Each structure stands twice: as C-alpha cells, then as structure tokens.
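User: Let's play a game. I give you a shape written as tokens, and you guess the letters that built it. Ready? Here's round one.
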C-alpha cells in the first residue's frame, strides 16, 4: 500500500486538531451557564423577603378596606373557629369579597388569637380587620352605648340589644332562661326576668348573650345589696311581716313598675298592694288585681290560656276571668309566679319603703296620675267621674 503523502498527513492532522478544538467547546460554553443559575438563585434569595413583605403589606391594606355591605346587621353561625371556615361563611353572607384573602389574613392574625365558633351578629360594612376582632371577641373591639328602660320585659331588652348590634334577640332569650346560667347567678326562678337591671351600659358589639345576661343580672344584684345595706330594718320587715324573699321583693317591684307612670306615685301604689295582701276587709282576699300581670302571662305563655289567643296588647275582661293564665292576679291570690318586668331602683325602694296609707284601690286619670281610694264604692265613683268622697290624688 503506498505511503500517504505528506500533504495528506497534514490535512489529517489539521482535521484532528479541528475536531479536537471543536470537542472542547461544549465544556467551555457550559461554565458560564452554571454561574448564571447560581447567580439567579442568590438573586431570588435576596428578593424573596421583599416580595413577601410587599404581599403582606398588600394584605394588610386590603384588611383595612370597608366591607362590601351598606351597614346592615347580619346574623351568622360559625361551625368552627378555623380561618378557612370563617372566610367561606363570610363570603357566602356577603361580608367579604374574597374568602381566600380573608382566610389568609385571619390565619396571619390567628398566630395570636382564636376565632370563636357559634352565633355572631355583624355589620356587613366592617373591614376584614374589624371582622377578625369581632369574631375573636377581642376586648378592643367596638362597643355601643345602650339604654334599657325601667319596666321593660326581656322581649323589649332583646329587641334593643339586637338593633344595637350587641347580640341577637333569640340568643338573648335562650341565655335568659338557661338553667345552668341562672343557677350560677343565684336567680331562683325559671328565667332572669326582673333581674335585668334597667340602666345605660357600654356593651361590646357582637357579644356572647350569656355575657350580656351576666352583666345585667350582676347590676341588679349589686343594687339589691346596696338597698338592703341602706335599709336593713325595712328589709327585715319584708321577711318578718310579709314572708318576702328577695325574689318576692323583685316580683312586686316589677308590678309597680308597670302600674306607675309617675315615679312619685310608686310608694302609694306599693301601699295599695301590701294592703290588698293583708287587709281582712279586702275581697277577694289577697288578690292583687293587677292588669299588667295578666297581660304578661299572655305575652310569655299565650298557649296556656284560651283568652290570650286574641291578645293584641290590650287587656279585655275575658282575660281577667281566665284562671288558666298563671299570671292573672284576678284569679290567683298573692304574687304571680315571677316578675313581669325589670324594675329600677325607685320601684325596688318603694317595696322596701311603701307609703303608710289605708288605700285599697287606685284608678288612672289618663294623664299619668292616679286617684287613690279606700272603698270600692268610692272607687266606682271615680270610674264614673264622680267625686270620690275624700279620695285624693297623690
């Protein structure tokens, strides 16, 4: 075989060199790419905290925006205290525009607090930040000044509490008759009626109903204790002469509160009822004969008395003849089963310190005052608009 010529060998050498040079290019080209990925990783590590901070800042700004509603009260129930559940429920009820964002914000806040499951009464215009505070029932949440008037029943109070955004009327009614709660508060009755002290309170919005009942009952207990301390002899007389317990005291005061328009007449009206309980000449014996007691029975137990079926807020003779109404003091002697309203300090004091009179009857003049009389004949004369023969207005 002929030897290769020098020129062929040179071309072959140059070809191998070119192939050798070509084969070294890939490693040389890969090195810069490895440096670029490493640099990119460090860049992301550097920017990630900034991105996270911007995201959290945006979430916090969103949480301060007012809600999508118009300031209407919404009653809702949380089945559990998770942020995800709260976001879903609030979105369904129209209190937030994003369940996911609310859940993210609430989860961030839940590092330091817990949302309370159960019933909540919320404004649909609250910001997510305020919603979290309300759902967690923080002490720093908004409060509302609420005035409860003397002579109101638990139904009246429940309506005022709900309209003020404190708690729903239904939740308040349930707490008001909760046996365990009443026992803890030493209320010796089926309900807390009579022990919901009328006053002006600063109450947290969206409060637990039990907490509200505790606040009102404790205010009554405090007032009773102060009056006992100020009038120890009168308190002892109630027990010794009339056999009155604290509950009897509150019950009679609740009747006075419904009968009197002018607080100045409370001691005189109290004397009438004490006289009816003890005067041997009064007939029917020991019958208080108070219209508001029968009316209360129709409000709270309408199913018990047939005469209550047509009750529209006004007393008719049929109701006063109906003995199936437990609260009807025209058919049942002594005090009714319990208070018929929530008395204030003046009515409670009037039971302790009634006026000294021999009156057995009183009749409203339609102007906020009463005419008091001793005999039924004089009472009938007043009703007919005739002179009462010595009866006077107090």
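Assistant: Ready! My guess for every position:
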């Amino acid at each position: 075989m002929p030897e290769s010529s020098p020129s062929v060998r040179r071309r072959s050498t140059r070809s191998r060199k070119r192939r050798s040079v070509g084969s070294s290019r890939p490693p040389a080209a890969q090195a810069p790419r490895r440096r670029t990925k490493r640099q990119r990783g460090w860049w992301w590590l550097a920017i990630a905290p900034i991105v996270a901070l911007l995201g959290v800042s945006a979430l916090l700004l969103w949480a301060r925006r007012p809600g999508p509603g118009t300031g209407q009260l919404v009653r809702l129930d949380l089945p559990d205290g998770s942020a995800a559940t709260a976001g879903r429920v609030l979105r369904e009820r129209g209190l937030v525009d994003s369940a996911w964002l609310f859940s993210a914000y609430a989860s961030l806040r839940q590092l330091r607090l817990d949302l309370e499951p159960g019933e909540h009464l919320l404004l649909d215009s609250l910001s997510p930040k305020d919603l979290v505070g309300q759902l967690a029932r923080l002490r720093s949440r908004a409060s509302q000044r609420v005035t409860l008037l003397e002579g109101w029943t638990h139904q009246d109070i429940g309506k005022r509490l709900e309209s003020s955004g404190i708690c729903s009327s239904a939740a308040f009614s349930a707490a008001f008759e909760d046996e365990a709660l009443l026992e803890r508060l030493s209320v010796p009755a089926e309900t807390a009626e009579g022990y919901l002290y009328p006053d002006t309170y600063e109450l947290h919005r969206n409060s637990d109903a039990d907490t509200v009942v505790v606040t009102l009952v404790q205010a009554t207990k405090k007032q009773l204790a102060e009056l006992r301390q100020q009038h120890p002899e009168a308190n002892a007389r109630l027990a010794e002469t009339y056999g009155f317990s604290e509950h009897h005291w509150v019950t009679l005061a609740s009747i006075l509160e419904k009968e009197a328009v002018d607080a100045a007449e409370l001691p005189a009206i109290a004397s009438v009822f004490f006289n009816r309980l003890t005067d041997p000449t009064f007939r029917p014996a020991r019958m208080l004969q108070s219209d508001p007691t029968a009316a209360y029975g129709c409000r709270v137990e309408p199913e018990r008395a047939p005469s209550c079926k047509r009750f529209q807020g006004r007393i008719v003779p049929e109701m006063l003849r109906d003995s199936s109404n437990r609260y009807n003091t025209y058919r049942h002697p002594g005090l009714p089963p319990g208070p018929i309203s929530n008395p204030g300090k003046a009515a409670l004091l009037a039971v302790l310190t009634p006026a000294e009179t021999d009156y057995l009857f009183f009749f409203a003049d339609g102007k906020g005052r009463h005419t008091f009389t001793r005999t039924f004949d004089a009472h009938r004369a007043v009703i007919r608009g005739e002179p009462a023969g010595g009866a006077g207005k107090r």
